[in-house]
Amino acid sequence: MPLDPALARLANATLMVPFESHHAPRWVLEGLAEGVSGVCLFHNNLQGPDQIRALNTQLGEAADTPLISLDEEGGDVTRIGQARGSDYPGNAALGAVDDTELTRATHREMGGRLADLGFNMDLAPSVDVNVADDNPVIGTRSFGADPALVARHAKASVLGLHDAGVVACAKHFPGHGATSQDSHHVLPLVQADAEVLRERELRPFRAAVEAGVRSVLTAHIEMPSLGGPGPATLNHHVLNRVLREELGFTGTVVSDAMEMQGVSGRVGIPEASVLAVAAGCDLLCLGRFVYADQVDAVRTALVEAVRQGRLSGERLEEAAARNSALRTWVRDRAAVRASVPGPDGVGLSVARRATRVHGEPPRLHDPFVVEVDAPAGVAVGEVPWGLAPWFADTVRVSPDPAVTADLLARAAGRDLVVVVRDAHRYPAARDLVLALLAARPEAVIVEMGLPIWRPDLGTHVSTYGAAHVNSRSAAELLGARGALQKARPGV
To answer: Taking the CB of residue 179, how many other CB atoms lie within 10 A of it?
Structure first.
């Protein structure tokens, strides 16, 4: 049965779709022409500056100011820096420096680079308050564990992106920082008193709203004390009574990726999409691997839900109107552009200021660098990290103490540097570090995640992130200044 054209267009207005190539396929261009609000690009769509600009120009010509978005947080989560790491430090480094003007300048410059490439929406910043040390999905993506600090940097980052004419999107509402599970795989549950959540999780979102944020992205997490069971993305009370009425947000509510198991694992993406729009989501971010057939299934499910009386046509119209207003804001801000100075801009300055040394400052002459591997989260993906670009004699090993003897033999008579990433989360990595320090107590340990665990021996360097500029800052500290001049420019 053919879909009602008017309802299909309203359903399209709730969609932000991905695709699989460096060129926009016909179904995406036709969808934009038929009312799809926008696209979300991932690293598989991005090959280089010229290709990105050509792609985004093609997308922009398919409709009147479609939303062209991506997850560009800086730091560990980067799309334009996927090949070598980001030129902008992540939120943890910005929080460690705690200079809100610098945070605003960083996001202004990053937004300017995005605008120069043709993007008009950034699914950032992450304003989660990271209070769970073993959080597998936030970590260095957070400004820190202090709600007041996160709130002031949430405001600064929103203002910085808006300075560049790019839509900021505060995430992951109502806060993913107190979880020990990843909503890509399960539905995390946060059991805390409502007043604790209001003063901790909600405070940065309140600051973002006060800064004029135009979009807020939901989390697939359950916070019963804020308004009942189920993920926030599907929770009418959380999205309306809390976000809109209590915090005063009037912009576009964007869902986190609907392919994530925390929201659609039990009911499937089409049904979860219906429930999300009914609950108050205006724009459905469909995820990384939801292509033409599944997009069509979501559209059909939305139209059928209206026909069956499970979703009101007025709710679709309301969502479409909010998304249209967001696109109008983009169009009105199109003339605003920040400077795009290149890879040695403000990002490297922040990374240098964030880097901390505990113990004797390193004086290396002939370093042997050991990188202890750590799995990347789904949101981060396979982005290069470590010191290998700066030191030729670098090895990457699995976190297995059994390799200790071999590593010590190779490091004999040389300066030993051991690089870890979130060692506090991986017992085997800690065991390997301690085994190496038992024989080489003067070794330098470089932590490129959160510096929650620090051994008593050796010199400890903390970078608060694993972006390209974070690693470069650590390399400079370790004496690799000559190698730094050979760095390739980024996107």
So the answer is: 26
Taking the C-alpha atoms of residue 319 and residue 326, their distance in angstroms, rounded to an integer, is 11
Helix/strand/coil for 365:
coil
Active site residue 256: yes
Distance CA 482, CA 61 (A): 45
pLDDT given at position 343 = 61
Over residues 449-466, the mean pLDDT reads 95
Q: What mean pLDDT is predicted for residues 212-232? A: 94
Predicted TM-score of the model (pTM): 0.94
Tokens matching residue 102 = 């610098």
**Active-site option among 256, 282, 415, 422:** 256
Angle value at C-alpha 109, between 463 and 219, nearest 5 degrees:
70
Sign of the Cα pseudo-torsion (367, 487, 348, 150, in order):
negative
- Residue 11: pLDDT over 50: yes
Interval 36-56 mean pLDDT: 96
Rounded-to-integer distance, Cα 306 and Cα 271, Å: 13
The CA–CA distances, whole Å, from 416 to 424, 433, 468 equal 21, 11, 22
Which entry of 107, 153, 162, 184 is annotated as an active-site residue?
A: 184
Cβ atoms of 174 and 202 within 8 Å: the answer is yes
Amino acid at 94: L
Which tokens in the block code for residue 203? 């405070």
Q: Report the C-alpha gap between 285 and 287 in whole angstroms.
A: 6
133 and 452 in contact (C-beta within 8 Å)? Answer: yes
The reply to whether 122 belongs to the active site is no
Beta pairing class for 67-70 and 367-372: unpaired
**What is the layout of strands, in order, in the sheet containing 394-397?**
356-358, 459-462, 444-447, 415-420, 367-372, 394-397
Q: How far apart are CA 488 and CA 474, in angstroms?
A: 17
Nearest to 74 by CA among 329, 338, 345, 284: 345
